Amino acid sequence: MHDSVKAALAKWYGDRAWRLSxxxxxxxxxxxxxxxxxxxxxxxxxxxxLAGPGVHHVIEPGRIPAxxxxxxxxxxxxxxxxxxxxxxxxxxxxxxxxxxxGLLFLTMSPKxxxxxxxxPNSYGYTDGIRMSPMELCQFFDPCFRLLDLTRxxxxxxxxxxxxxxxxxx
Length: 169
Known about the structure:
Radius of gyration: 14 Å
Strand order of the largest sheet: 3-2-1-4-5-7-6
Structural class: alpha/beta
Strand content: 25-35%
Oligomer: single chain
CATH topology: Rossmann fold
CATH class: Alpha Beta
Shape: globular
Largest sheet: 7 strands, mixed
Number of helices: 4
Helix content: 10-25%
Number of strands: 7
Order of helices and strands: HHEEEEHEHEE
CATH architecture: 3-Layer(aba) Sandwich
């Protein structure tokens, strides 16, 4: 996780601590390769399709188990969306994890940024899902109300998009 994304996540969480503190928060795509949401939000529950560091719940792609559906006040997905094989499934996972009105904090490298690896990538995904800011907003619109869209400040890569939204009923 880039330091600028970590700082943006800490600010987002800090601004909402009154609402999020001690509540269930999902870290979707939690396999810890280079820093974790749990470094910022220690009570976040890691969810991924592969068991490993930072993962509390292993799921099948696109399938949220009944015991996790609608149980989270927030979903945080840092640089995991772009590595999903199926964007629609990932959006559905975010929605299915959240209670109505729950919050989404999602980052991704936008179109035009250099591709990068999450080695060790034992599941063989590539970062093939890239969207412009407008495409990202339109893609999440059926399930989420846009709250904010910004860009992290990483000189070398131009920065990640940071999308925050609220689950629609």
